[in-house]
């Protein structure tokens, strides 16, 4: 369990942590290949192979999270397509009680996401999750993703948190590894980021499938 008496600041990922990752997985793994197949007049299998190769080439880099980059690469109206599928954007059902409890306990709640600002705004419109937060940071304002140590240095400089008294919550092991390397004192992994997929087995970090089990 977490020792809440030793935590002042909670840094929270968005997609797969506060929000169900099903929207993003469906969008990038189903909608985009289908649209690419239509646009290029190729088979769905060809489009899927093409897109996976492109994803792997920039995995963990800021480009992977950049909607402008993908619009340019694929010549597709990314935000327009996101709006068409926005009905799939949902907050995890355990999140409101968790964030409300943290606020009552006097914790500072900061969203720290690799998501593009336009995507962040769409998700705020759909979920009102920003009403629970004290601050919002998209790594795009720094031009570098959470997987990189330079991002952590810049964010700590700007936010001024004590890394030993900070909890970071994310569903990405690569990102949690970067936070650990930087010296963030408390780490929590989300084992069920996508409601339509099986839970992930996580051994390296304290993990959670229902935030209500972690209330202070």
UniProtKB/TrEMBL annotation:
InterPro entries: HAD-like_hydrolase_sf, HAD-like_sf, HAD-SF_hydro_IA, HAD_sf. The keyword Signal does not apply. It comes from the Bacteria. Its EC number is 3.1.3.5. Keywords: Hydrolase. The keyword Hydrolase applies. One of its GO terms (molecular function) is 5'-nucleotidase activity. It holds the Pfam family Hydrolase. This is GMP/IMP nucleotidase. The lineage of its organism: Bacteria, Pseudomonadati, Pseudomonadota, Gammaproteobacteria, Alteromonadales.
């Amino acid at each position: 369990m977490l020792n809440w008496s030793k935590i002042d600041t909670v840094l929270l990922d968005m997609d797969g942590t506060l929000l169900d990752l099903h929207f993003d997985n469906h969008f990038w793994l189903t909608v985009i290949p289908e649209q690419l197949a239509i646009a290029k007049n190729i088979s769905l299998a060809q489009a899927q192979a093409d897109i996976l190769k492109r994803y792997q080439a920039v995995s963990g880099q800021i480009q992977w999270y950049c909607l402008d980059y993908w619009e340019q690469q694929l010549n597709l109206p990314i935000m327009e397509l996101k709006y068409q599928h926005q009905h799939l954007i949902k907050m995890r059902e355990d999140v409101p009680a968790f964030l409300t409890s943290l606020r009552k306990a006097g914790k500072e709640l900061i969203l720290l996401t690799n998501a593009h600002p336009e995507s962040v705004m769409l998700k705020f419109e759909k979920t009102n999750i920003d009403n629970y937060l004290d601050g919002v940071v998209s790594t795009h304002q720094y031009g570098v993703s959470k997987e990189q140590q330079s991002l952590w240095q810049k964010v700590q400089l700007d936010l001024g948190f004590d890394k030993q008294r900070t909890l970071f919550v994310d569903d990405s092991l690569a990102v949690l590894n970067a936070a650990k390397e930087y010296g963030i004192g408390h780490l929590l992994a989300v084992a069920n980021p996508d409601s339509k997929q099986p839970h992930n087995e996580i051994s390296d970090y304290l993990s959670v499938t229902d935030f209500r089990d972690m209330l202070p």
